[in-house]
Amino acid sequence: MTTPFIKHVAATRFAPPRIGARHVPRTDLLAQLHQMQHATLALVTGSAGYGKTTLLAQWRQTCVKGGADVAWLTLTADEKGYADFCSALVAAIQRIGLCTEADFRIDDASPGAMDAAIAALVESTLDWPKELYVFVDDYHYVEAPLAHRFMQKLLEHAPGNLHFVIASRVAPPLSLSRLRMMNQIVELDSAELPFNLAETRAFIDENLGAGKLDADAPGLIHELTRGWPSCIQLIVIMLKNRPDTLATLRDLVWRSSDLQTWLSEEVMADLPTHLASFAEVLSIFRRFNAPLARAVTGDAQAADLLKRMEDENLLVSRVDSDDRLAWYRFHPLFGEYLATRLAARDDATVKALQLRASHWFADHGYLAEAVRHASIAGDVEFAATVIERAEPATWSLEYLSPMLHLLEQLPEATLFRHQRLLFIACLTIALTTRPDKASAWLPHLQSSALSDDPELANCVPMIHAAIAFQHDDTQRMIELLEPLRDAVIQNRFLRYFLVAELCVAYAGAGRYAEVTRQLDRRPIPPADRDNEMALVAEAARVAAILHEGGVREAERLGTPLLAHSVKAVGRHSISANICASVLVDAYYELDRIDDARETIANRRGLLQSSGPDLTIRASLCRARLDCLQVSADVALAFLEQQTAHLRDHQHPRAVAYMLAEQIRILLQKVRHARAAQLDILLDELAQAHREDSGIRGEVATIAALAHARVLRTEQPEAALAALRDAHARATALGRGRIAALADFLLAATLADLDRIEDAQASFRHAIEAGAQFGLVRTFIDEGAVAATLLNRAVQEAWIDGPARDYAIGLLERFPGELNALGQAGVSQPANGRKGDSALTPRELEILALVAQAMSNKRIALALNITLETVKWNLRNVFSKLGVSSRYDAMLWARKNGLIE
Fold it and tell me: Which end of the chain is more exposed for a tag (fewer CB within 10 A), N or C?
């Protein structure tokens, strides 16, 4: 018998860190780790600050509660050698009563001694009465090949009741293929460790308090950090100390000395100087690959260095791409940190790097990146040349951002010399909120100078139409575009741009059949499904369906289109923004409040710098969500801000909508005097646009609705006249929702005047249209007026059959004090369930699939929604039902008859 060599180790190394009371349970990750009760190894790898240790500590608690014996070891740089690692590991295991009289020496690295040590460890666990989990944190400190060999053999010979849980910043050099083949390993990596949006929200609420930030703030923080737990914690600390920093959060976070210090100490300190310098150069890119890195840095080993960065989880991730080359990008905050280090170098050196990058991108056909880097380097002539020599077939909306950046630096004289560049510039500016500048440049666009490209010369009217779009002049758009409707356009960008413009123009005029005909005439072939302008054309068609009133159909078509747009061209692309504006409106209308809030979260561009329609939809939904979830005062303050912004940008239709919404909220809050003041302003605006056609005809329509609301109590006959005017105008424009609302308010006003027969007729029209389109919030947002009318119609049997069920369904969404059905003894609709009013239809739908043992991913696929939406809804279900797991929620729902 020999005495084992055991190094003295601080006791704290054998205990996990304490989990604070305000932690966020990593429910989904713990569910994956739960699978390891039948596995030998759980391997968690990820960058610094991604919550590996906290996750392990949470899993340890679960194991202890399950009756297992648990050993914990936190490694340090002292355990990089064989003997030091093995002695620390054995010491951790000995603390739970194993290997107390081992007959082996840890300091003997011979094959025989190693085998003896492993045999002793295995023997001591074979008859152990419980499951045994050994947690090893910070395994990346281990360097000795013999130590890895020891761990490898231990994993290969471990009995069924012995499990290892290893956390490391880098993938350990262990051969895991056998464990994978036998399903004996659970692996979590950097892609799975970041918080999802729901976890980010939960962490912020736990640490700052619910409701301390506006509803969009968690989305902004999540996008900025990409779910990086340590950085979210840093932001929370900053906001605790300085709540006013939220407005400038994006700048403050990456400039924060705490973040700079943390990155320096935890990420950069152990990097070789050569690798750190290489990473700094790559910070100039939004994405990079090995050939690009080699060309710009001049380092022949660029591919190996990139592989090392990826293997060591250096806050770098792969970018989804159809390219055969692997593309990478840094975490945005780490990229900003590296850029600040690069900026300390000589300015001429940095500009030279940018120019090399620009030439590489230009030579390989990446126009947007070439222009961006040339502009940053200050070589605007080269940037202009790159754009002008690019084939029109390669044009993309991706060029908008670098084009705008270039145009801010490019002298107009240079711009006017490059006619093709001027064409693209006019188109770019016209598509933004600066149509006046495009109008000023157009006279310099000489068709004769485009004679070598007749297609471009013939498409100049499209630029004029884009300017007309920004001014809400759909009639002018039709006049400009109809002569081109049957033209053969080879350029895909311009072809789909024409389709999109025509869809917008015809929808504005209420000519919906023409909208459908555009895509029938120019169907999108499979090869163009990822073309962004083709996606914009499809999004314009979905927006037209919403214009007409088809909420359910817009949601059905818009949901997969948004997912496709995000995957193909990015979350902040024009097509994704159009789809998001449609879906936030549709979700809100369908009373899917959480889906609406999630869709609009952190899409500030929709509120400030989009076309009129997008801004109107997003602004109204944002205000209504605030009214529901925050307060009427917050909603009114936002609407006042938007009114001023839109008035400044000369968008009368948008201003009319903002004023009308303020009037509706003010009247519900019994602030009649202020509502009357805004009604006067709105009426003045309506008088100026009373004879307008096309989409601007909405100004007088919604003004008449608002005016009727103001007059309804004191001057009901005048209110009736205003409502009839609104109904006639909405019908002429083909605005189904507005016409249905006008009918609904007509019925309420007529009922107040005891003109019951007329009231019933208007009510039937409203309910039939509402049922057809799927309207919910259009009616219930009228508050007590709607509840009173619906109660009376149901109790007095104004309608029957499916229409009555639909009306009862609307009533069930009102608070108890506004819903008199309980006192009236009215039976539930045939397909209704008693007791399910606490859960939304979407929550019930998800809960039913949970009962079928579907995973969150399968539920998302089945319902054609995002994984984030599934998780967010489940959190709401758990909160409402007072349970903590999917299983408990399913049992509660079955017990209470919510699911079968």
Answer: N
Q: Are residues 201 and 121 in the same domain?
A: no
Q: Are residues 203 and 99 in the same domain?
A: no
| Highest-pLDDT range among 223-237, 526-540, 852-866 | 526-540
Going from the C-alpha of 398 to that of each of 369, 418, 428, 603, the distances in angstroms are 9, 20, 11, 18
SS3 string, 277-316, reads HHHHHHCCCCCECHHHHHHHHCCCCHHHHHHHHHHCCCCE
**Residues 580, 598: Cα–Cα separation, whole Å:** 10
Are 99 and 205 in the same domain?
no
**Same domain membership, residue 136 and residue 35:** yes
Structure tokens at 188: 């979590």
Q: Residue 118: give its domain's CATH number.
A: 3.40.50.300
Q: Give residue-wise pLDDT tens across range 189-212.
A: 888 888 888 888 888 888 777 667
- What's the CATH number where 600 sits? 1.25.40.10
Q: Dihedral of the CA atoms 108, 110, 114, 115 (nearest 10)?
A: -140
8 A C-beta contact, residue 58 and residue 30: yes
The enclosing H or E element of 44 equals strand 41-45
Q: For residues 695 and 690, give the distance between their C-alpha atoms in angstroms, rounded to a whole number.
A: 12
- How much is the mean pLDDT over the chain? 83
Amino acid code (one letter) for 216: D
Contact 446, 486 (CB under 8 A): no
User: Looking at the domain assignment, is residue 297 inside a domain?
Assistant: no
Report field, pTM of the whole predicted structure over 0.85: no
CA 460 – CA 466 distance, rounded (Å):
10
Per-residue DSSP letter, 244: G
> Closest Cα to residue 481, out of 453, 461, 452?
461
- Per-residue pLDDT at 813 exceeds 90: no
Contacts for 442 with CB less than 8 Å, ≥ 6 apart: 426, 460, 463, 464
The DSSP letter of residue 891 is: H
Count of C-beta atoms within a 10 Å radius of residue 831: 7
Q: In this structure, are 111 and 219 located in the same domain?
A: no
The residue ranking higher by pLDDT, 213 or 650, is: 650
Same domain, 171 and 238: no
Give SS3 for 327: strand
pLDDT tens-digit series, residues 111-158: 888 888 888 888 888 888 888 999 999 999 999 999 999 999 999 898
Identify each DSSP E strand in 802-867 by its residue range.
Answer: none
CA-closest candidate to residue 503, choices 514, 489, 495, 494: 514
pLDDT tens digits, residue range 540-575? 999 999 999 999 999 999 999 999 988 888 777 888
* Same domain, residue pair 89 and 176: yes
- Taking CB atoms within 8 Å and a gap of at least 24, the contacts of 854-860 are 856/28
320-343 pLDDT, tens digit each: 665 677 888 888 888 888 888 898
CA angle 487, 490, 491 (to 5 degrees): 110
| Residue at 420 is within a domain | no
- Residue pair 224/333 in contact by the 8 Å Cβ criterion: yes
Nearby residues of 482 by Cβ (< 8 Å), 6 or more positions away? none
The closest alpha carbon to 787, from 834, 740, 821, 761, belongs to 821
Sequence-distant (≥ 6) Cβ neighbours of residue 755 within 8 angstroms: none
Coil, helix or strand at residue 319: strand
Residues 759, 747: Cα–Cα separation, whole Å: 4
Q: In whole angstroms, give the CA distance from residue 737 to residue 705.
A: 12
Domain residue limits at 869: 841-895
| Cα–Cα distance measured from residue 365 to residue 384, given in angstroms and rounded to the nearest whole number | 15
> Is the Cβ–Cβ distance between 232 and 204 less than 8 Å?
yes
What six digits make up the tokens of 704?
Answer: 């008449």
Closest by CA to 824, choosing from 837, 835, 808, is 808
How far apart (Å, rounded) are the C-alpha atoms in residues 306 and 751?
73
> Any alpha helices (H) in 6-51, and if so which ranges?
27-33
Residues 29 and 176 in one domain: yes
